[in-house]
Predict the structure.
Amino acid sequence: MTYAITQNCCSDATCVAVCPVNCIHPTPEEQAFGSTEMLYVDPAACIDCGACADACPVDAIFPVDSLSAGQKEYAAINAAYYEGRERETAAGPNFHSWGEPSFARSLPSDFAPIRVAVVGTGPAGMYAAEDLLLHTNAEVTLIDRLPVAGGLVRYGVAPDHPATKGVGETFARFHSHPRVRMHLGVEVGKDLTVEELAAHHDAVIYAVGASDARRLGIPGEDLPGSLPATQFVSWYNAHPEVPPETVGLSAERVVVAGNGNVALDVARILVTDPAALAGTDIAGHALAALQDSEVREVVLLGRRGPDDTACTASELLALAHLPGVGLVVDDHDPRTGAVLDGPAEGEKAALLRELPRETVDWSQPPPPGRRIVFRFHSAPMEVRGHDGVEAVRVTAAAGDREIPAGLFLRAIGYRGVPVPGLPFDESAGTVPHEGGRVAGLSGSYVVGWIKRGPSGGIGANRTCAAETVGTLLADAVAGALPSPAYPAKAFGRLVRRRGRQVVDARGLAAIDRAEQARGREQGRPRIKFDTVPALIAASKGRGLRSSR
Ligand code: NAP
């Protein structure tokens, strides 16, 4: 029996580090790392020790013979990665041999502890903090704009992906680390300036993500009922800045622009049986709205063909296993059929090829039941309606076509937002940098989506953080970090002087306890507080009352 990596793989390579026989690839040292959708166990080399499964932060690795019905394909998917691949050593399965352990990021033993602020407590910030805390004696100040930690782990991962949310527990171990000070509910660029933060630390790492949504620039984009998918994601995840009334689900059809993983997340949540979501940490208002929802059909618009579908194969496979939901390909454009009937290779093409095809008559209401329609070679041109969305005009093989719909979500990607005081590349929506060091600003660094743009899952941030922390430590050893102007305790005093209701590690733990207690009452993992005042009240131990 061997192990296989499945849908939730976060590619952060924790499993690679603990595998005693190097049977998980690509490793961070291999060229393919970061370009594959997931990591794979070599069945010919796996010794069935289970170390990878124990170490996996997102519970994605299982013995092949215990894979559930929806996961069975992963035995073949793992094995396929190794087919026809040459191993480096004839004798064994390893692509590379174990070298001497390297601790390249340790500071010299006589190095005085440096003080590093990490702005943003999502995966990118937490991988950077983890690296610093595990490999150096640095003191870390964790800062977040919201009064609760987690970033996209808390507010981006879909509620029906609880295993992925499990990586949050790995990060939470560092929230109460003795060398961590936490100040949640503080916005850099508003409550504190970049200069003030720098003056209190040897270095600052910005891990502020990409909190805005890209725009299509088409007429009607701002009509009521036309929303960025990111807002819909925040809505079902109880983000305190997205109120319950943001989303209405009174229409039978929803059109989504894009077919990346965010598009698949929103489509799946819209058509999943709400009973299956009732045991998750989905926002109460979203669950209630989904229980009353009229939505029966979600149309995913891909502006290119099926061979350029942006989602990962594992998310597409999961969609195909969604109980009670049909998947269909709109056959409106002969190029779609040509690709699917042609030689296109890969898991996604294979999955799409198996779906029924139909030339959808958009003048008719959706058929009975719930379904997702993949429509390729079709870009949104206009959102039409008077007081709200009534239809979306899209490109079609012969000119254009109107698809009646009551909700339009654009899942065309996130976009970084400038931090006042930091340089910003408007076209890329990122902060210009060299190896993570902010261009022209010594002592300032970036990591995650604000560094490399909004692509890649949670685990991609681990190697991204390793690069940034490596640059920072090299600068420290080279004496290139500006010294802080104030003693360590002065920063806490500065934050309190600004009069903000700041949540510390103890307050965060109180929020966590209160949310879990509320969840237990309803058989759910947690019920999140969904307003800033409720989060702050919970941090002070007044957390069991209703949040809105
Ligand atoms: P994405 O993967 O970049 O997909 C964006 C989609 O929008 C693509 O289909 C793209 O089409 C389309 N698009 C872009 N501009 C457009 C335009 N002007 N008109 C029409 N369509 C347009 O972005 P995402 O879905 O926001 O995901 C961001 C990252 O987060 C990805 O790396 C994703 O894998 C990750 N993520 C992962 C998970 C998960 O693992 N479950 C969940 C959520 C997000 P083109 O391909 O033609 O550009």
